[in-house]
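pls read this protein.

:::
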Amino acid sequence: MRHPTTPGPHRRVIGALTVALLGAAGLTTPAAAAPTEAPRAAAAAFPDIQPADARPTAVRPAAAPPPVRAPGADPAEALALTPPMGFNNWNSTHCRADFNEAMVKGIADIFVERGLKAAGYTYVNLDDCWALPARNAEGKLVPDPVRFPNGIKAVADYVHSKGLKFGIYTSAGTKTCNRAGFPGALGHEYSDAQQFADWGVDYLKYDNCNNQGVDAKLRYTTMRDALKATGRPIVYSLCEWGQNKPWEWAKDVGQLWRTTGDISDNWGSMLSILKRNLPLAPYAGPGHWNDPDMLEVGNGGMTDIEYRSHFSLWSIMAAPLLIGSDLRKAPESAFEILGNREVIAVNQDRLGKQGTVVSSEGGRWVVAKELADGSRAVALFNESARPQRIATTAQAVGLPRAAGYAVRDLWRHSGTHTADTLAATVPAHGTVLLRVSNSRSWPLLPPSVEAVADEQVMVEATQTGETTTTVTDLGRIPVRKVSVALTGPAGWTVRAASRTTERVLSPGERLATRWQVSPPAGTAPGAHELTLTVNYRTLTGKRLSLTAPASVSVVVAPPAGRSYLSDLGWLSTANGWGPVEKDRSNGESKAGDGRPITIGGQVFAKGLGVHASSTVEYYAGGRCTTVEAQVGVDDEKGTRGTVTFEIWADGVKAAATGVLTNAMNAQPVTADVRGAKVVRLVVTDGGDGIDSDHADWADLTIGC
């Protein structure tokens, strides 16, 4: 029997391999010190890596780097050198009675008690409806005595007493945006600015309603000068909605500018705003930020997966992080998302760059952001309604060529290394957020292992389908004792049809497993989630596991003859605003809020009402021949709206229109879909953004 302290042959091989990898990475140490000192040095550099004889310790975020000075700025006066973080009440309360002094003080208390202040959230901001509808005899603004019985200064003082900062709202018009008609600052800029400064305001949101047609640059520049004249440093947020492209002229006016209209608490709204803000990356930097509007996390209109995407994407875009939910009522999951310091660190990185799009084909988005330490934050974002594999490389996101790269998953809080590939199966509407570097200590991290299942697997009811899963070692060293399991919902039968284990998986090698999947009788049509689980060991014996989502769609064969597609179940939908509507126009909010489908004055009883950008998929099963429709922009938006329509047969575009406007009557479109398993109906925005793009697939039928 070998003595426990005597290294066996496999340990000598592992040790030799480790030394070789350390040498390749430039981490060689004197021979006598290598076995003991290198692991401890690595543990100091990477808190999530421990020497073999060390006890596990809690992972702590790295200390925040010192702020950088904006070019030409006086450090004593420099504002918003990183994107502002804080709270604004509008998304959760609008003008309702629960917006009041108690709420504002309660949020300030929660910032301190729940660690949000320590995480970087600083501003507690009021939005519209804080004032009375009329100024006083001296022309001063008057706080609503019911909402704020002690006045605004008392609230600001309370916020300041917590070590936080206080913000307020008005509009660059004669009135604010609320229909009650609260006074705006147009013509009162210097008086209002001084009143704000006297109250202790640190942040001003300046809206764009009731502007009387006065030039935007003049209106916003005047308030800038008024704020400067007070002598108080006040962060200046231009809420101009992007109408006059403030990113092109407002760098010397304020610290942030809205790039879009208001966000709503739904997936389509968040997605459309994301797509409008991403191309503006060149205009963002320390002291001047693109603002895609406030966060909706915790308000309840999206899933936690969607809220994590929302927070990840706003962070990688270097957007202001202003919490828009009433934290007194928010679920614990909202605090877990909003308090993720590793994600916040990406947003608050002192280099101040906004992430840029690397790729976006098929709803598989890769967005990369350069960070001050030379690393890259990388978001793998799945726009689609089913799990998808999203992949890129370390070099594609801007890192120099290297033998290996360190990879940190900012939601799982775990570290691995990769030879180059960055890949994950991302759940529907989900985001994997990584921090990737060419640190020379990458060999001390376990290799990245990827698990992926076939996409768009369809099983007809009562039948058995087949899918294949693949496990790949993406690192530079092997993994051992690899096993894979696939599980379905209760009542499903999932059987392996090929091997599920591998003794050793070398770098780049794959374990592919075929599975037979059978849903139970009575399973509802639609997508059903399965879970792929992989267990494995590193060469040092550490046990690791990972899970990945998989999806199987239970489908019903379309009936013979000609059918209205609105009478059949779809595979999936994605919509710019609100849900896709059957036999109604798109109402932008909840199901059933649309109107009769109407194009050019002609009313249609059947069809789909959508809002660009939109995709609707149907199962054809190779049994169908043609899709026909009358298409156009719905009359409910008056003269506004421009869209295009496309019909896809599997991966082939089978028909398309040109750009259609509201001034046009319904246009016929026919597509040959013979042999296609899936028919995809797509509406794009016509190239000018999605505002008012209510599109109708009227008299939409399929022949099978």
Q: What stands out?
A: The longest strand covers residues 543-555.
